[in-house]
Every structure is written in C-alpha cells, then in structure tokens.
Amino acid sequence: MLRATPPIRRVVLVVPDGLRPDAIAAGALPTLSRLLPRSAHTLSAQTVTPSVTACAMASMLTGAPPARHGLQGDRFALPRPRGTIDPLPRLLAAHELPSSAFMAEVPFVMRPIAHRIAGVLGFGEARLRGADAAAIVDHALPQLAAQERGLVVLHWPDADRAGHAEGWMSAGYLDAARALDAALGRVVDALDLADPRTLLVVAADHGGGGIVPTRHDSTHAADTTIPVLLAGGAVAPMRLGADVSLLDIPATIAWALGIPLPASYAGRPLSHAFPAVRLLASDRQVIATAPEPEYIDAVVGECSRR
Q1: In what helix (H) or strand (E) does residue 127 lie, and over which residues does it extend?
Q2: 52-74 pLDDT, tens per residue?
Q3: Cα separation of 262 and 91, whole Å?
Q4: Which candidate, 13, 83, 64, places its Cα nearest to that of 230?
Q5: Does 301 share its domain with 180?
Q6: Rounded distance, CA 177 to CA 38, Å?
Q7: Quick one: angle between helices 133-146 and 171-190, nearest 10?
Q8: Total domains, the chain
Q9: Coil, strand or helix: which one is 137?
Q10: pLDDT tens-digit profile of 215-245?
Q11: How far is it, in rounded angstroms, from Cα 206 to Cα 213?
Q12: Strand 150-156 to strand 10-16: parallel, antiparallel, or no bridges (unpaired)?
C-alpha cells in the first residue's frame, strides 16, 4: 500500500451532522461556498448503511463498515466488532500522534459511557461541552492553536437536530446549516490553509429527508449522499468524482499522516487530491505528478544521493 511521506502533520476533521450537499447552495453558506473552489471535493459521496450517526461516526473513526464494527443502530455504544478493527485515534497513538475530540454535551448519566467510548477509540482528550457548533468551537479553538500534530475531530449537531425537529431543507434546518457554516468559518480562520502541514477535512455523516422529511435512515439518495471536502496547502483543488465513500475518509487521514493502512480499513486514500506529496512503495520512493518541475528535481536529486 502506498503511503504519504508527511509534510502533513495535523488533520482537522469537521463533521457537520446531517448536512445535505444541496444545503450549501440553498442556504447560501458563505464559508463552504468559498472553500469549494479551493478544495478537493465532491457533493455526491456516499455514507454507510444504515445512514445514521452512530454507524457513520463509528465507521469514520475505525475505517470499518457497520457490519464489521458492530454498530447497526443509532445508539452510541462500545463497539462489538465482528473481526479486527483499528480505531483511527488508537492507530495514530501507536505512531506517537495525539488525537482530540470536541462534541456536544451529553446528559450527565451518559457522560461516563461517552468518555469510556472515547478512551476505547484512543482519544487522548475528549471534551463533550457546548450545546451547538458555536459553543463547541469556543472549547476547541485553544486546542487548535496548541495541537500541531495528529488529529482534531469536531462534531456539530445543529443541522441534524433541526432536521429531526422541522424537516430537512426547512427554514429552520437552513438556519442551522448557516450556524454550522459560521462555526466552520471560525475554524478556517484559526488555520493556515496555505500551510502544507495542515489538512482540513469536512464531511457530513449522512443527509436527511429522503422518504420521511424528519428522518435519514432510508436508502434514498437524499439520506445517503454527503459532501466531502479536503483543503490545505498540500491539496490540489479538484472534483473528486462520484465514487467517494465515507469509508475513504479515515483511510485518507491515516495515509496523509504517513501511516500504513491496516487490513481492516475498507476505504481507499484519496491520494490523487495530493499531487505534490511524495509516496512510499515498498523501499522505493515514488513521486506523484507535481505542479512544479523544481519540486521533482529536488526530490530526484535527494533520492540519487542515497
């Protein structure tokens, strides 16, 4: 398996829960609208089945489909895997890379199990504080400033809650989508997306309103289709195509940080979005198509001296 040779040192994964791709235009979301032409992106990626948050987030954090990681419903629980799984934060920790997570607060009685799940997954720090995206970002900004390596995950519930309450693509849902977009703008402002050492990944866990306006657990395209964006100094702006899966996200994160993919990962790295990143294949170094000839000359010269 090919793997990246960092310059990428840190990945920030933002999960706007329940954000449909068509909400970007319908809600006139300025941050995402500005990011699209600067990113490698698709508005037609597919989530896992069933298309519910617990299954999708477990897949995003383990690289495994629900049939393997064992979560088949919308209740968060400790995974009961059918086979080996390799949680992404634990995989990073094995390579001395930290992971932190910022999510909405949960009821008091659920906090012990939530923190236990975070520990089993391998998060060194998990903060379940804030009722919405704005408050979650308030808690995450100091970590974004301090953590220069590894993985930072932010999960925002605003659009999903509004979809369940008022229906996907309703006025209330689009207001919640704008709140997510404003929170994303604050994250983007805190990052230097011209820096090749930082990779921003934005990916919803599911859509919604496909068959039932207030649900998202069917196989309807409106429930299963999600936006995926990759942005950063090492990313080439492009359209990723229609064959992108949510399972490609953990594979891409591990690959971008230079970590070999475990056999349990069902997705593939979206490596074509990183044309100037060096690759390793066995003991030989291989260079993907790079935009500047001098970059190729420098790397070839380095290899020839070895």
Answers
A1: strand 125-128
A2: 998 999 999 999 999 887 776 66
A3: 9
A4: 13
A5: no
A6: 20
A7: 10
A8: 2
A9: helix
A10: 999 999 999 999 999 999 999 999 998 899 9
A11: 14
A12: parallel
